[in-house]
Structures are given as structure tokens and as C-alpha cells.
Amino acid sequence: MSQHKLTQLQELESESIHIMREVVAEFRNPVMLYSVGKDSSVMLHLARKAFHPGPLPFSLLHVDTGYKFKEMYEFRDWYVKEVGAKLIVHRNEDAIAKGMNPQDFGVARCCGALKTGGLLEALENGGYDAAFGGARRDEERSRAKERVYSMRDSFGQWDPKNQRPELWSLYNGRIHDGESVRVFPISNWTEMDVWQYIREESIPIVPLYYAKERLMVERGEHLIPAEKGQFLLEGETPKMVLSRYRTLGCMPCTGAVRSSATTIEEIIQEASVATRSERETRIIDHGSNSMEDKKKEGYF
Amino acid sequence: MPNSNQAPDQISAQEVELLRLVTVGSVDDGKSTLIGRLLYDTKGAFEDQLQAVRKDGGNSNESGADSIDLAQLTDGLSAEREQGITIDVAYRYFSTPKRKFIMADCPGHEQYTRNMVTGASTANTAIILIDARKGVLQQTRRHTHIIGLLGLPHLIVAINKMDLIDYDEATFIRIKEELTEFCARQNIHDLLCIPISALAGDMVVDRGDNMPWYKGQTVLETLEGIEVSGHTDEADFRFPVQYVCRPQTKELPDFRGFMGRIASGTVKVGDEVMQLPAGKKSKVKTIVTFDGNLDEAFAPQSVTLTLEDEIDISRGDIIVQAGKAPQIANEIEAIVCWMGEEPLTPRKKYHIKHATNTVKAMVSEIQYRTDINALTQDETAQELAVNEIGKVSLKLMSPLTIDRYADNRATGNFIIIDSFTNNTVGAAMIC
């Protein structure tokens, strides 16, 4: 009787679909946070599978800091149209008008205003009681203890010491007025699972993930994109470097890696021998506690 | 640099299966060292993550698992690092060319029984750690009892610190016999004892040279060989309906599909099925997925079923094979692991969530509370406090379609929700 076996990717897929259907069935007004990155691409693909042959029963929400890469905006607008999803773009216009940037205000303040602040504002404006996010537990150590349903109080804050236990595949979606949940349907996926699934399902991703000659400056161990609008330090000279991005965030705070991987197959090869985690190129994670602190304040 | 067991050409193998496991034991038993060894030797942790938790701040040239403070790697919350304790279940991921593993790492202290139950509920295999110098302790019996209650199909007991007893075979055999006898009384049928030294690396990933007398498999070989699926095939078909799909679009004006994940068993097009609790019958017309319609589907696939007849089915109903029906109950008895700060008491009302259905329920009686250390039953108990386990009778405000947990792990469980705080306060297994 053992012919009926799923591969691990099929099992992860089924689990994610189950989670998404539970949320749509039990919450009044869900939304899917769409960051344009590879994890978002996978999450959106899973959502299409979950509700096929029906349309997506929720909108996508992109919290835009204004500092994303040009290729991300292009990809976003193309892909959302391609799959027929409804996209809401929200920007913290107040902070943007005040000239918020990581150089003058510091990374923590900039993220706090444009990402966390923008997200909380958007969730409040939309009156959403559930928001899907593409975070994975393997990304960062405070996320290793995150639930699939992450309860947030009326300020969007996370209390790691007061989380609901999650048993079997029963998710407790009962909340009080004003509270909300962040739901992470790909909690159990690893970076490698995401890449393999992108290959198996031919899921489109932003071209920045593929290697090409790009204008970069070397800052310490980081490769920083020297694109228009980038803040360069004194003495930094941009040069062309064959490189790609392992994760995508805001242009001033996302480093590239030297790489010659121009296909998914080559990216998988590279990830399989990688000795450094993908989030190493994300400036926001560093510092003693930063991800946990951000999550407590409302970051996803 | 971590050793990679994965040759790049093997990564693309599509036959990789998923095994969910739970590790139980206290830091003193060397659990962190074992987990670190597995993560390190299978490349489940990255160099920069390891660098951040090196005991000497990363200045050492030593790059083995031994120089890493592994608890720092798994204890992700600041309160844990400050207090040097593990508060919560942490999920860790590693893989070999044959398998991907999702490991729930649970704290071993008594006050955190709730975490162990949580971690074990999704697992197929448990690893319990024992210190070979100390043998079978009260803690071991407690952990084993909970694994038995949660009905995990496989238990591996890693008898650790063999290096500290000169790799003595006689001690290993004595502990193994004691455990085998205990497990026989705890509903655990597949027990495997492995002598290891997590610190020296013996019998975890590599065999080492210290225990030529042990002919069995290493921990990792065992994990790679355990049967992960197939067992749910033999169970009856259970399909809790999550969501009814009615697109009402121009292309699909009349489509009505029942979305859910198959909890157990298999289903084929043409099968006679029944909706419960009302008991209306029909036949499976199509099994719809994004990748095309299927002739047959099985647990744990997520699919959409359409039926031949227009019968009323909504979220919370369960579709089963006609003739293999579960019970429809207004009263249930269950083993409850209590997790709420306020104790469970008779006559108190709660919400319970079973499969895709949430109903109100009232505690009618506490039949007994298990003394988790002596493993005796106290029939005079008037409440279940946090981290206590007992057998409870509940009256349901509306009927549920249930199986016994022993017959069907997927449809035999439910959670208890505090109706006031909305917190999950209990995990229950139907008797």
C-alpha cells in the first residue's frame, strides 16, 4: 500500500494550501502581503493552486518603501496582471515626504517607518484581520519559534512568550475585534525547497536573482548596488561585477553576491554548496536582536 | 566549513520524502549537542549562523560541532538566551539526499509539557535522549508516556554519553531492556535504542570506532529508513470540507467544488461517498487540482471534489466513503493535555475545534488525572491544571463526526479554546 507517496515538495505544497484555505474560510477579510521576492512568488503560486478553479479570494498588498529595485516594480506589475490578481500598493507617504532614508536616519528608523509603519498603516486602512506573509522559519533564529498563525494585538505587535500552541493541523483562528493574525503558509519551507519548487513549477521570478554584470561598490564584505539613487560613501568607486541577489529588499540595504549562476539549475547548485545563509546580505537582520525586536513592533 | 553529504547531482532527486520528528530531552542529556551534530553534519546550519554562536565569539580556528554553543543556535528568543533556558518549541530543518527532516525541538522540563505535546502532535517519529550514566529516569518515563499518548508510530531512544561509560555494552543492554518493558505498556510498538556519543559523534551520522559491538543503524540511517507514509492509506477515507468553491464566473457558472485536504485514506472518481453528519449520499464526479483532474487521490493531498448530485455540503462537514462511517457524537471522552493557565473544571464551557468544525462544549466530568510521574490515575481529581493530563467527558452543543484517536490520528483529535480569551488551552485525543 505504499505507492501512495508524496515527495517532500508535494507534501509541503499540500500543507500550505490547507493553511490558506483555512484562513479564507475562517477570517472575514484576509490579504496577502506581496513583496515581489521569490518567496512571495511561491506563495502566490500556491494561492492560485489552493483556490483553483476559482479566482484568488483576496487582494495582494505590496508595502512599497520607494526604495525597491526598478526590476522589482516592473516584475510586480507584469506578474500581477499575468495571474489576474488584484494589487494594492501602499506607501507611508508621510515618511517618504519627510525624506526618510537609511543614510541620514539609520537603517532601524527607516525600516521602522517605511516597512513596519507602512505595513501597519496599510493593514489598518484595509481593515484586514488576516495577512499572509512569505516568511520561513529557517530564515532567522527568532522566526524558528514563530507560529503559522502569528497573533498580533491591536497595535500589530508580536508577543513571543504568549503564543498559542499549534497542534496537529488545527489552527485556532478565533480573535477579538481589533486583533489580527499574520499567517505564514510556507513556514516549513527552506531556501532550497523554494528554489526547487520554482524549478519544478516554472514559477517566474525577478531577473535580479540571476547573475549578470552589475555596477557595484565593495563595502566591507558586502557588494552594494551602485544604482541611481544609491548612497555612496566617500572614496567608493563603482565597478562592474558578475553578481546576483539571493534575497531582495530595499536597494540601499540589500547586498549582492558574486555569482555566475544564470539559470535556476545553477542557482540550486550554488545554494546546495552555500556556506552562508541568504539573509546575510540583508542589513536589517544584524545587531543583537534585530528581527525579534522588529517583529515585536509589528514587522512581519 | 560544514561537511556536505549532498553531492550536487543528488540534490535534484525528486524522490525525497518528508519526515517530521520531535526531539525530547533536557540540555543535560546532550540534546543540543545531538541536534547540533545532525544540523552540522547534514549542513542544516550555515557558517554565518554558526559563527554568530561560537563559544569564543568566532576567533577559534576549530571548526567542528564541538566548538559551537548549540543551544544558542536553537534558542532564538532573547529571554531564552538571557535565562539560559528553552521556552518554546523551535523548528529546525535539515536534509540528506534521501530525506528532508522537519525537527520540532522541545524543552524537556516538566513545566513545558505543553510544548512537548505540541511538538509531538505533528511528528511521525520521536527521539528521546537518555544519559547512559543515569539510565531510565522519571523524566524518561514521562516523555515516553506522552509519546505513547500522542500515538507516534516510531520512537528512537538515543542512549547518549556512551563515551563517559567506556562504551560499555552491558549498560546499554540493561537500559534497553528496561525501556522495552516500559514501552510495551505505553502503546509504543516500534522502539529502537541506539547507543551514541553526540559529543564524539559516535553512531549519530558516522559510526565511529568505539562501538564495534553495536551492529544496528546510526541515528541518521534510522531516520532515513523509517516508513513515513503509506500507513494513512489503510485508514478509511476522511475528507473534512474546508471551503466550498463556487466561482460563479462566465466560464464556470455552475461549478461547485468541495475543497479540503484528505485526512486519511484514498478516494477515486466514481466512489460512493457520504456527507456527514446529515448522511446524504452521492458519487465522486471529479477530483480537481490546478495541475489537472486526478483519477485517484490520497492523504495528505489537498484537492477539490465535485459530486454527481446537488447535495447540501458546507464547511465543517466530513465526506467519507459510504459504509465506512465514523461516529456522530453529542458526547465525547478524551485524553486532554491541559495548557491553559486557568485550570479545566467541570461545568465550564469552551469552544472546541475538530477538523474544520468549531462547536461549543461543556466539561461534564473529569474521569481521572494521570500522575505523570508515577503514571497512576487519580479518580478524585476536580480539575486539570496547566501541564496536567487526564481523561475528560464533554457534552457538545452540536454533534461532531469523530473517530477514536487510536483508529485515526487525523480525525481523532481536537483542540480546546477558551471562549473568553480565545487562547488554545487544551489538546485532546478522543477515546
What's this model, at a glance?
The complex is a heterodimer of chains A (300) and B (431). With 300 residues, chain A is an alpha/beta fold.
Shape verdict of chain A: globular
Uncertain runs of chain B with pLDDT below 50, 5 residues or more? 1-13, 55-63
Q: What is the overall silhouette of chain B? A: globular
- Please identify the top-level CATH class of the largest domain in chain B: Alpha Beta
> What is Rg of chain B?
24 Å
- CATH H-level name of the largest domain in chain A... which superfamily? HUPs
CATH architecture of the largest domain in chain B: 3-Layer(aba) Sandwich
* CATH-scheme architecture of the largest domain in chain A: 3-Layer(aba) Sandwich
Helix-strand blueprint:
The complex is a heterodimer of chains A (300) and B (431).
Chain A: H1 8-26, E1 30-33, H2 38-51, E2 59-63, H3 70-83, E3 87-90, H4 93-97, H5 102-105, H6 107-126, E4 130-132, E5 149-152, E6 180-183, H7 191-201, E7 212-219, E8 222-225, E9 239-244, E10 257-258, H8 264-273, H9 290-297
Parallel strand pairs in A: 1-2, 1-4, 2-3, 4-6
Antiparallel strand pairs in A: 5-6, 7-8, 7-9, 9-10
Chain B: H1 8-11, E1 17-24, H2 31-41, H3 47-51, H4 70-74, H5 78-83, E2 90-95, E3 99-106, H6 113-121, E4 125-131, H7 138-149, E5 154-160, H8 169-184, E6 191-195, H9 219-225, E7 238-240, E8 243-245, E9 257-261, E10 266-268, E11 272-276, E12 280-288, E13 296-298, E14 302-307, E15 318-321, E16 327-338, E17 349-354, E18 357-371, E19 376-378, E20 389-402, E21 413-417, E22 424-430
Write a structural description.
The complex is a heterodimer of chains A (300) and B (431). Chain A has 300 residues and is of the alpha/beta class. Chain A has 2 domains: 8-194 and 288-297, 3-Layer(aba) Sandwich (Rossmann fold), CATH 3.40.50; 206-283, no CATH class. Chain A has 9 helices and 10 strands. In chain A, β2, α3 and β3 (87-90) form a beta-alpha-beta unit. In chain A, α1 (8-26) crosses α2 (38-51), α2 crosses α7 and α7 packs antiparallel against α8. Chain A starts with 7 loop residues before the first helix and ends with a helix. Chain B is α+β, with helices and mostly antiparallel strands and 431 residues long. Chain B folds into 3 domains: 8-225, P-loop containing nucleotide triphosphate hydrolases (Rossmann fold); 238-321, Translation factors (Elongation Factor Tu (Ef-tu), domain 3, Beta Barrel), CATH 2.40.30; 327-430, Beta Barrel (Elongation Factor Tu (Ef-tu), domain 3), CATH 2.40.30.10. Chain B is 17% helix and 33% strand. Chain B contains 9 helices and 22 strands. Chain B has helices at 8-11, 31-41, 47-51, 70-74, 78-83, 113-121, 138-149, 169-184, 219-225; strands spanning 17-24, 90-95, 99-106, 125-131, 154-160, 191-195, 238-240, 243-245, 257-261, 266-268, 272-276, 280-288, 296-298, 302-307, 318-321, 327-338, 349-354, 357-371, 376-378, 389-402, 413-417, 424-430. In chain B, the strands form 4 sheets. Chain B has a 7-stranded antiparallel beta sheet, with no helix packed on it. Chain B has a 6-stranded mixed beta sheet with strand order 2-3-1-4-5-6, sandwiched between helices. In chain B, β18 (357-371) and β19 form a beta hairpin. Chain B is globular. Residues 1-13 and 55-63 of chain B have low confidence and may be disordered. Chains A and B meet through α1, α2, α7 and α8 of A and α3, β2, β3, α6 and β9 of B.
